[in-house]
Amino acid sequence: MDLSYLMTPFVAWLVAGVLKFIINSLKAGRLAFGLIGYGGLPSNHSSIVSSMAALIALREGLGHPAFGVAVTLAFIVMLDANSLRRQVGKHAAAINLLASREPGHVALRERMGHSRLEIAAGVLTGMAVAYVVWRLNAH
Description:
This is Divergent PAP2 family protein. By secondary structure, the protein is mainly alpha-helical.
């Protein structure tokens, strides 16, 4: 049984997460467990959807309908990561500023979205994972 379509997005998520942790730790000069989550380089979401689109392209071809669906989904996820989630982060910052004087206020997470560089790094990570999985399963 071939589980590569199930395994590839998970591996892409794992690789992107490990890379993000290493990069954040190097930037912070300490283990960056507190920086795990939304945002950062590479984008986990972009890595996941790009890995599936790339694997479909490698195995089924660019003309396969599943590739079109995967690219469409990837495009929506990346637009969301760059625009909508960034706006949510800006709103969280404004709310935190307004509510900072309230007793017991728990700050909202402000780092939500991704820059284009972080998304591009996620795409490259996802494509690289898909390529490795494809090469390992080549018959």
